[in-house]
Amino acid sequence: MAEVAVAFPNDETSAEVIASRLRADGIAARVDRGLIGSTWQMSARGQVTVFVDERVAEQAHKILGTRPREERPPSAFARLSVELLFVALVIGLVAIVITVATR
Predict the structure, then answer these.
(1) Which whole-number Å values give the CA distances from 22 to 29, 84, 85, in the listed order?
(2) What is the pLDDT of residue 38?
(3) In the chain, at which end, N or C, are there fewer CB atoms within 10 A of the end residue's CB?
(4) pTM: predicted TM-score of the whole model, two decimal places
(5) CATH 2.60.40 describes domain 3-64
C-alpha cells in the first residue's frame, strides 16, 4: 500500500483537522510531522504532511478541494550544485590521500 501526500498544512493542528475530515468520510489518513519534533534544527512550517492510500487519493483531493502536486524534475541549478558538490568531495578525498601518501 503506497501512500500519497494530499495536504501540506502549516501546523500540526490543521493537519489533524484535515485528517479527521478525511476519516469522517471513511478514508484512513496519517499525519507525518516531519522534522517538527526537532524544532532546534528546522522551522515547523511546511514540515507537516497528510498522507492517504494512493487508491483513495483522488477522492481525498475531491473532499479537501486540493489538487495533486505536480512532480517537476530538478532545476538545472540544483543538478549543477550536486555535480559541483560531488567534484569538491572527490578533490578533497584526493587531497587527503596525497597528503597521507607524502608523509
Answers:
(1) 7, 44, 42
(2) 52
(3) C
(4) 0.61
(5) no
